[in-house]
Design a protein that fits this description.
heterodimer, A: about 260 residues, mainly alpha, B: alpha+beta, six-stranded mixed β-sheet, five-stranded antiparallel β-sheet, binds adenosine-5'-triphosphate, binds magnesium ion
Chain lengths: ~260, ~375
């Protein structure tokens, strides 16, 4: 490796590591005295009921969003690739809209639209919020899955499966899905990260998700907030790891195969 | 009685008539090749039989039952594609097993059948490999075993060898034929390679522009092409446009030369015909003085070594001819030599040409 490469690498690493280290040092100071060094802030977070409650809400919301999105988008994109390739650019364009429309505009619009929807939907994070997050996740889902479908020969695989006697659903589950697994996994990661960190929509629709809790602590407790930030960082990574493990378990070999191609 | 019948099949894609009235009747256990240049509708025909596409007109009948509207997963057709059709997430064994699982066969039966099939295609040792760990030829063997596993009523193959290199291609085509004969399975085989079609088929159907030009045994197709297109497409053929001068004696005229061709007897005087001569039946000799009867005089333009024979291109009297000579004899006729090419009056075939119809179809040299 050349010297300049090393320098750039160190600079890049510093850019990521310094804030983490600084936050870490800050989180070790006592909330009462402001002196180093104590793990009390971490204890405070871990023993805080609001923390666990909000993490649980956000994580379940993320899972729900992932499941709903995959159920909607996998069959849709499959069908578009197979039968309606001319619709693909249209959907790609639609997928850009959640990028272009600011979340604040989106949430106001959604609140208006769903104002008269039933209480179980409108007043629950599992209803309204997950619906909003499915929209938010749409571009990530679409572009990941689209790339996955383009990497396989959808037509030939489908026809081969059909000629062997498989119905559409069997073909989708047994043949297509295992071969777009890594794309689906990537889409799920992105969705998880979005949902775990989404603030605007949750705040305006008044649901107590994890980012809302972080914000609350930030405003009231300086040093524990730093501990919380680091913990949330760790939690998000742990969640992704969990997803990876779950996603790879059944198709471990196929994931390896896909990786080897 | 015919086991597989394609009756008056039509299929249009917008303005393109991909199929324009296809009729095929194939007996049980027979092997038919659909042969033709790119875009002639071979794949379209096969896809209609497999059920991936529906005809605009016409019927497909298998064993007396009309299956035209039956969906592909209920047709029991084994299909082998050109390439990349194996399920990448499954091993060779799992690929072959797939159709049996769909049919709900029990485990012991599946295992036995898969083992038998992998042995049949010579891949027992590679049963647990994934497709990306198999060569192209091996992948096609697995695809064949997978298609055969369901004991299909008809086996369909769409240029299964075209992505393989020449040696594997020849080896595998013979194996396909061996297996087909062994199982006695009715087979429809699509190819644009005439040599392949002639080598392994019971019947060959030459297609052009969405219609079947001629159907027959490989020998019939080779020795008695019925249309100018078939003559051009199957093997190499010298084609001389001529006009019948004397329908009793069998004399025709081609660019000022009077030739006697047995096949011209009984033709109408003044009729436009095409005289067809295989390169191997032309006789070539070094030119001597004085014109020999039924002969062209010309000059050797090129020599192409083809192994047992050498192909000579001869030009003279406004005509180009191709002649295949044993390599030993060709050595005596180097490039530039003056030669006499004798047209054998009994070996030449004749095809009528429309009086003022279009010229001959133009072929892509790649399809030869
Ligand atoms: N789905 C389709 N949409 C539009 N046109 C099509 C479609 N399928 C085939 N065609 C057209 O129909 C004609 C016949 O195509 P087909 O694929 O049957 O040819 P082929 O004989 O299999 O050629 P090749 O040797 O190149 O595979 C072609 O002109 C092709 O462009
Ligand atoms: Mg084709």
């Amino acid at each position: 490796m050349s010297l300049s490469a090393v320098v750039w690498l160190v600079l890049g690493a510093a850019y990521f590591v310094i804030p983490l280290v600084a936050t870490f040092l800050f989180s070790l100071k006592s909330n009462q005295t402001g002196k180093c060094c104590t793990a009390a802030n971490y204890g405070w977070v871990i023993h805080n009921g609001g923390f666990w409650h909000s993490v649980k809400i956000s994580f379940l919301l993320a899972l729900e969003t992932i499941v709903i999105s995959l159920l909607i988008f996998v069959p849709t994109i499959y069908w578009v690739h197979l039968k309606l390739p001319r619709l693909r650019p249209v959907i790609a364009f639609l997928a850009l809209i959640p990028f272009v429309v600011p979340p604040i505009v989106m949430v106001v619009g959604l609140l208006q639209v769903f104002k008269s929807s039933p209480h179980w939907f409108y007043a629950q994070p599992w209803g309204f919020l997950s619906a909003a997050y499915v929209i938010l996740a749409f571009p990530y889902m679409f572009f990941s899955l689209d790339a996955g479908f383009r990497a396989i020969d959808v037509h030939t695989l489908t026809e081969a499966s059909q000629s062997l006697g498989a119905r559409w659903t069997t073909t989708l589950v047994k043949v297509i899905l295992p071969n777009i697994r890594s794309a689906a996994l990537a889409a799920s990661f992105l969705t998880l990260a979005i949902v775990m960190g989404e603030f605007t929509i949750a705040n305006l629709s008044a649901f107590h998700t994890f980012p809302i809790f972080i914000q609350l602590v930030n405003e009231t407790q300086g040093f524990p907030a730093a501990a919380l930030t680091l913990l949330s960082f760790g939690i998000t990574w742990a969640a992704m790891l969990a997803l990876l493990v779950v996603g790879r378990k059944r198709g471990a070999r196929s994931a390896v195969v896909a990786g080897a191609r | 009685m015919a086991y597989l019948e394609l009756q008056e099949l039509h299929r249009d894609f917008g303005t393109v008539k991909a199929l324009n009235g296809i009729d095929i009747a194939l007996g049980e256990g027979e092997f038919l090749s659909l042969l033709g240049p790119s875009g002639c509708g071979k794949t379209t025909a096969l896809r209609l039989v497999a059920g991936f596409d529906r005809p605009d007109q016409g019927r497909i009948v298998v064993d007396g039952k009309d299956v035209t509207r039956v969906s592909p997963n209920r047709r029991d057709m084994g299909m082998v594609f050109q390439a990349y059709s194996l399920f990448p997430n499954m091993t060779a064994r799992q690929n072959v097993e797939f159709g049996l699982k769909i049919r709900g066969r029990d485990k012991a039966e599946r295992r036995k059948r898969v083992d038998d099939l992998l042995e049949l295609v010579g891949l027992t040792h590679a049963a647990d490999r994934y497709p990306h760990q198999l060569s192209g030829g091996m992948q096609q063997r697995v695809a064949l075993a997978r298609a055969l596993a369901i004991e299909p009523r008809v086996l369909l193959l769409d240029e299964p060898l075209s992505a393989l290199d020449a040696k594997v291609r020849v080896q595998l085509r013979e194996e396909i034929r061996r297996i087909q004969l062994e199982l006695g399975i009715t087979t429809l085989y699509v190819t644009h390679d005439q040599e392949e079609a002639l080598a392994i088929s019971d019947h060959v159907a030459v297609m052009y522009g969405g219609v079947i030009e001629q159907m027959g045994t490989p020998a019939e197709m080779y020795t008695a092409p019925a249309t100018p297109f078939v003559a051009e497409f199957i093997g190499t053929m010298n084609r001389l446009e001529a006009i019948v001068l004397d329908g009793v004696e069998g004399d025709v005229e081609h660019s000022g030369l009077r030739l006697r061709v047995d096949a011209a007897r009984g033709r109408r005087n003044g009729e436009r015909v095409l005289v067809l001569i295989r390169p191997e039946s032309l006789e070539l000799e070094a030119a001597t003085n004085g014109a020999a009867p039924n002969s062209f005089t010309g000059e050797v333009l090129t020599q192409t070594f083809l192994g047992p024979v050498t192909r000579l291109k001869v030009s003279g009297s406004g005509t180009n001819l191709i002649a295949d000579l044993s390599t030993a004899r060709a050595a005596a006729l180097p490039v530039g030599a003056r030669v006499v090419a004798k047209i054998p009056s009994e070996g030449a075939k004749l095809i009528s040409l429309p009086d003022d119809g279009p010229g001959l179809p133009v072929l892509d040299p790649d399809d030869q």
